[in-house]
């Protein structure tokens, strides 16, 4: 046997009995979803709950400054900022010790851009030579709107996917796909909460991309499932699902690996902004792949599908046990 | 596979030519680009502010203030109209967003109503009045803004603001920023390469509403400061360096709109910076009338509710030429002249969002983006080579390279903005583009194993994988469209990159792969496929 091309190493035919493990997977999924929901929502603090809210959604100001070649005198900067009565101030170095990020809320009633000018001036007085590399100010009105738009985008994406799958397949498939999507989105939120990634517009874009990828993955399995349902009319649904997942397995592995490889490059070399995004995407792709096999397909099994020459056949309790 | 239609080959060749031609400018230095013959495309990728460095400002036109100001002006108009017509009145003021006035002489009620209908408010472009005058109980008349007319006025105030901002910025002579309206009452300004937006903000953010108002000397200033302000007057902060506040009549005798031009000059007597101005005919006539009636009194020159100076009228000024002296530096006189020339904003602007990225940080991001794209790309290429061998892996690599060219070419041609998240979109698109190849190859292997001939397997690989490929990619396009609709700035760039990528990757994975495989098949007539 040759070892290259690698594809020859993959067995021609796999016979993993995925469905047999579906019950354990279901328990795992439910626990993970509940855990993620808790992590993402608790404490119930608007607008972002347990997530680390970016200024896109919360409003406020982020300044990135550099005092190169000297290191930033964090203590002095903190004292300066605290004297300014800005409320919740966050200050930390980013990348090298000579650059730092400051984040603060605009005091009630004050002009956001005037506050930024004051802070810049005060920091320059306290620290000497400072260059401000980034200054982002988001007002409370805009952040509220962005947050709403972000949530709406997520909801609309899931809704559109349901309609598309319904239109292309049948309703049961659509429901399976949407349950899988909810699973993926919630688990991704869990990952974001767990790693304390910032929740902002870019994160929403990443989640939407995961929705696209996860659907892509689910559609490939469903496509094969639909084809096999027509081909093997007498085969029990459980076995058809196993067969379809096995048949698409090598594709699932190769595509997933390619995406993770490419995103790995992005995470390592892409700098701080892309690091979080590519990590979220990597996790999302892993979750999306898992959910195509263990969430989308089992939902179809529970629900049953209408096969061309017989009525829908939901899983009988006896089958479910074993 | 055998009867490869000619149009497919032509399409693939054309797309490669397009890809190379439009990608090329990105690889050439600027000097070489300028020397390219006229028919060659010259546009390079349009980098977003996060990559290029620059400032993005989002302003909101303050419609609440606009409404309040409109009402205040209407009250003064009502006061003047009724006084001129000698109709006695009382209790003039705002009630629930409308103006209410009580006519104290019932005999003159109808007359009051008539003169108010004739004189208050203006007409909308469609010819309707923009205020509604109605009667209320107790000898009162109610004057309300017509909502539709106000909406129209608000909308035109936004358009006008954009015009004014554009004129102001043009006079600064910096790099042309991009100014667009956003939604109902927002204006977005993107200034590439401008990493210190303070100057920009000070020139854009000022309303620059210039008015000439009479100083109210009927009450001592001390009493007014203690709250005894006569009706129709207001206490304004003063910046003339003589007094902190000044009591002036609310009515604007002459406004900045009547100015024809303004210039920063040096005052010939004091040799200090000043701003000279010239008024149009209407302004000059009004100015002449006021100066002749009020010799010896003071009038205040007010900019955005702050008194710049309050000179005493020495004599009649008939020509409409004048000079504003005040606490100016050379820069502030120049700035005021620019603002006066460009005109006042019709309403106040508030900064709602400001994003600034220094050029250095942008350059770092570009470097990181290039490196990570290259690493990701090479990783995908190597992986395909390892997974599918030289032939099939190689073919998918060629398809992927053409895909990359097409994405960069399309983005350069359409001048779509490439942002940092957009780079992530690009990489992910390339990774997922491979998916179409994988689907086709896997299908071929299945068919071959099922006992079909090489030729039939290859054909079936394409035709049967097609519906899966389409379904799988439509979902990504849908997600991208939603991002495009709801996202702002960098996210839009991401969505656009993703959409372009999906279209080009389906094209290259399906068509390019098909053409290359067909050529291979015709040349070698293989007995089996090297991927089984």
UniProtKB/TrEMBL annotation, chain A:
Q: Which GO terms describe its cellular component?
A: plasma membrane
Q: Where in the cell is it found?
A: Cell membrane
Which InterPro entries does its entry note? SecD/SecF_arch_bac, SecD/SecF_bac, SecD/SecF_CS, SecD_SecF_C, SecD_SecF_C_bact, SecF_bac
Annotated TM spans: 21-42, 146-167, 174-195, 201-225, 253-274, 280-305
| Keyword Transmembrane helix attached | yes
Q: Which Pfam families match?
A: Sec_GG, SecD_SecF_C
How would you describe this protein's topology in the membrane? Multi-pass membrane protein
Alphabetically sorted, this entry's keywords are: Cell membrane, Membrane, Protein transport, Translocation, Transmembrane, Transmembrane helix, Transport
One Gene Ontology term of the biological-process aspect is:
protein targeting
Domain Protein export membrane protein SecD/SecF C-terminal, residue spans: 120-304
- Subunit field text: Forms a complex with SecD. Part of the essential Sec protein translocation apparatus which comprises SecA, SecYEG and auxiliary proteins SecDF-YajC and YidC.
Family, as annotated: Belongs to the SecD/SecF family. SecF subfamily.
Function field:
Part of the Sec protein translocase complex. Interacts with the SecYEG preprotein conducting channel. SecDF uses the proton motive force (PMF) to complete protein translocation after the ATP-dependent function of SecA.
**HAMAP family registered for this protein in UniProt:** SecF_B
Name-wise, this protein is Protein-export membrane protein SecF
What organism is this sequence from?
A: Phenylobacterium deserti
UniProtKB/TrEMBL annotation, chain B:
Record GO terms (molecular function)? protein-transporting ATPase activity
Q: Which InterPro entries would you find in this protein's record?
A: SecD, SecD/SecF_arch_bac, SecD/SecF_CS, SecD_1st, SecD_SecF_C, SecD_SecF_C_bact, SecDF_P1_head
The segment(s) forming the SecDF P1 head subdomain domain are 234-347
Ranges of residues in domain Protein translocase subunit SecDF P1: 158-217
Keyword list (alphabetical) reads: Cell inner membrane, Cell membrane, Membrane, Protein transport, Translocation, Transmembrane, Transmembrane helix, Transport
Q: How does it sit in the membrane?
A: Multi-pass membrane protein
Positions of transmembrane segments? 371-390, 397-416, 422-441, 462-488, 494-521
A Gene Ontology annotation in the biological process aspect, one of them, is: protein targeting
Residue ranges of every copy of the Protein export membrane protein SecD/SecF C-terminal domain listed in the record: 348-521
| Gene3D superfamilies tied to this protein | 3.30.1360.200, 3.30.70.3400
| A Pfam short name | SecD_1st
Q: Where does this chain mainly localize?
A: membrane
Annotated compartments: Cell membrane
According to its UniProt entry, what is the function of this protein? Answer: Part of the Sec protein translocase complex. Interacts with the SecYEG preprotein conducting channel. SecDF uses the proton motive force (PMF) to complete protein translocation after the ATP-dependent function of SecA.
Subunit field text = Forms a complex with SecF. Part of the essential Sec protein translocation apparatus which comprises SecA, SecYEG and auxiliary proteins SecDF-YajC and YidC.
Q: What is the official name of this protein in its record?
A: Protein translocase subunit SecD
Identify the gene encoding this protein: secD
